[in-house]
Every structure is written in C-alpha cells, then in structure tokens.
Design brief:
Elements: E1 16-20, E2 39-43, E3 48-51, E4 53-55, E5 65-74
Antiparallel strand pairs: 1-4, 1-5, 2-3, 2-5
Length: about 80
Amino acid sequence: MNTSSEKHFPPLVGEFAYYDDRMNPGENYIIDLNRWHICRVRCHDGANRDCNYSLPYRSDHSPYVTCHGKITSVAAPCHRVST
C-alpha cells in the first residue's frame, strides 16, 4: 500500500524524484510558503531537476506529477518552511 507518509522532503538519494505542478504556482501567483517545498536534484540521466519530494518507488498516477527518475545527488539548500 502506497501512502503519502512515504513522501520524503528533503528528497533522498536513491529514491525517485517527483515534481508536482500543483505545488509550484506560476510567477503571477502568491506562493504559500507553508506548502511550497522544492529542491534541486541530479537524476540518473545526469540532468538537474526541480523536485518537490521523493518516493521509494516509481508512480505515474497523476497528470500533475512528473517522475524524473532516480536521484543521484541533492543540491543544498532545499526550501521548506516549518509551521
């Protein structure tokens, strides 16, 4: 059973990187920093990607979420606001 409690932020090396378009509003929006979590990761293909969270498995179940592949490194700092 896959649950949201498996989502990791900051993302973990070796897990799959996910970018959720709903969590990243365009430049004309006010960002809710309590919900905005983003990090720059390097994936198995060598590309640097924006990542909102990682999961230990690959899932392609949402039209708003993109899986970038396995994470090989995480750039610091990642942005997260504690509440």
